[in-house]
Amino acid sequence: MSRKPLLLLTFLVLFAGCHQNTSTASKPPSAAKTFTIRGRVLSTDATHVTLDGEKVPGFMEAMTMDYKLADPSVVNELHAGDRITAKVLADKEGDSYGNVRLEDIVVIAQARPDYKPPVSYHVPTAGDVVPDFKLLNQSARTIHLDQFKGKVVLMTFIYTRCQLADFCPRMSHNFSDIDKALAADPALYRQTHLISVSFDPTYDTPKVLRSYGGAYTGNYTNEKFLHWDFAAPTEKELPAMTQFFNVGVTPGDNKSLTHSLSTVLIGKDGKIVDWYPTNEWKPEDILVAIKKSAA
Asked: Which of 19, 199, 239, 250 has a 20 to 30 A CA-CA distance from 131?
């Protein structure tokens, strides 16, 4: 399929004037900060774009990050390798930013016809057999994913130093809510297990993971971690695990990591039931899926 002519115009905003008018155009909330970003598109899904972005003064260092699209209808006009400029809207939440999204996207250069992303990521799909990855948990014990066969496993990816409220902190708060809800149903609790996987094994040692995990369970130093593991793969095994679960991770200049999101529900047979690649899922919806899988 040929690319539309608008992609060749360096100054044309995607769909400007076609999908919005002055009364309906999205406007940043009063607490939102607006920045301008330039970068290269690495991948897209229905509502997000992963961008290898240049430094944004006053906001972030050059990094790869998954951005929500303020207008998801533009996604069909974006292709891996395209260079774009866009406005970044971010809501100030204490010492961090949340609800980060892109709008007013302008394609300034088309992708090369032969462009290929540097890493090929697997898209988790229902029915996929999950490899038996091994991880070191908060108790300095090696765990294998296969050891949880016979239980429904909910797994997400985080790193403990993440400062974006809508990313790792939201995943951990959601898991905390789910863990408490499952604990209220002893039979279901016994049939399930939660795992938060860090993709920062150098910093996220068992001691760090234990402190982080205890804070999110609410039991702190008294936590036994019988139902929810916080663990990290080895540096050697990390690439295979992040690629299988579609987690893009790029080091930043300030010891931060930019990354995409990935939460996966694994059935008792060790196969993927569902994959949640954004932060928009709700704990109550996941609980319904867990109960269905455990039945």
From this structure: 250
